[in-house]
Amino acid sequence: MNSNMAKKKMNKMLLLPLFLGVVTLSAAGILTGVHLLTQPFIERNELNKKYEGYKKILEIDSFDTVNELTLEDPLKQAGVTLKQNFVINNEVVGVVYDANVTGWESDLIFQVGFKGNVYAGFNLISSKETPGIGADYLKLVDSRIKGKSVDQPVLIDNDGTYTGVTAPITGNAVKEVLELCARDYSGSALPEPEETTIENLRLALNNENADTFTATRTSGALNDGGVLFKYAVKEGEVEAGVVYEAKLRAFAPDLHFLVGIKDGTFVGFHVIASKETPDYGGDYLAQVRATLVGKAVTAEVLDDEPVSAGVTKTADAVKGVISLIATDYSNGGN
Amino acid sequence: MKKRKIFIDGIFANNAAFILFLGMCPTLATTKSFMSAFGMGIAVIATIILTNVAISAIRRWVPNEIRIPVLIVIIASIVTIIEMLMQAFMYDLSQTLGVYLSLIVVNCVILGRAEAFAMKNNVFDSFLDALGTGIGFLAGLLALALAREFLGTGGLAFSSLLTGKALWSFQLIPDNYVIPLFVDAPGAFIMFGLLAALINFVVMKVAENKKKKALAMAGGK
Asked: DSSP secondary-structure letter at B145?
């Protein structure tokens, strides 16, 4: 009797997860099949929408050639993915920037165009912003910027003329990129990041005696991920450690911090500026500091860190950067 | 249970939107315009039919202890498939429906019918139940959308579900007399309340009349 019950229990313990596993695997197989089938159509739709967008923004029916232009680093960091000019009869009729930024949700994909010295228009490709809030805000962006001079600030919600829905997180994400593109288009210098101070580097390395440093501007994946500088810091003639400086959008824009490393170990995490919500993202940053210090440098160092509800965006952003830093350091970037 | 009753109950007596108050989130959010409500309704019908049929077909093999995770996996997979198909073949509509398309996964109507009906009945009955419930839900969405768009914008606009291109529109109420509140979120709640009250009043009256008729017939005997 007892052996029968034990057998039944064992059967359940094995069969139930096995059954669930089979169902999940079957579902994964079917989903993969449908994904492979629909992906070319979805890509074609997105491409069509992009091309329709270029024509709509520049108010042209067709163009002779389109030239891809070089993207400056600050634009790339802000989420601009492509800059192109459009030529008709050997004359450039306008420039359009494609961008993929994080608003309230990730993958807010849009285009902004310029001709003459004005904004030519805005075209939304796709977004996951909340219908009724961020999604409604985006509907009015085109009419609000069209014809505005490139040296004018745009999307000002509190000037009394705007009566639509306000969506600060979506709005600020779009506004930031629009104004950056306008500066780039008009030939103004884009804001270059400035090196941090020795006081901040001391805090990042937990070393009050560090006194000199050499800063290197990052490039490639590290730069695209939001890491601006890498500092080799010295105490007298002795190496005091390496510090990475990052500035990125987490839940809010401009989360600015330093990560200090010495002899393959994280020695500090110093937040220079943060607009994260105090009891949520703010607490997570304190938690990261406590976790990192003393740990060996690995890309997965924060993977097991518990993330409270409501902190996912901050956590994902910080984890992504720490992972990039660890990979760079481990690959000899030190 | 009679096949006809299974189908009809899903539309009227057990109307998901206005009698059972299930799936309130998409009901309120996607009824801003008639066409987006129509698209959402079609997506829900497709999802509920496919999930009910699939679940009914495998119900004998699903162990009772893990039936809810199995139902969720099936529903989530079907919703994802529908989302991918819509992005491929109804791109504009998929953009209009936004996150609400993915949120069909947590629409109580789908899980409710799967658990309450499909797990206990055969494939054909489950199909009829899904069709009835889906049509009832679609009718609820359309009624709400019709009232909101008409009063909020003064008319109605129809567009192709496949291409998103405008087909036909009309405006009966001049701009100065429309009530924009109805296309905003508070208007959704107000109109939903009014329609729910009206529909429940009619349903109660019909039920009362039926009861009176039955009593009269019993008395006559």
From this structure: H
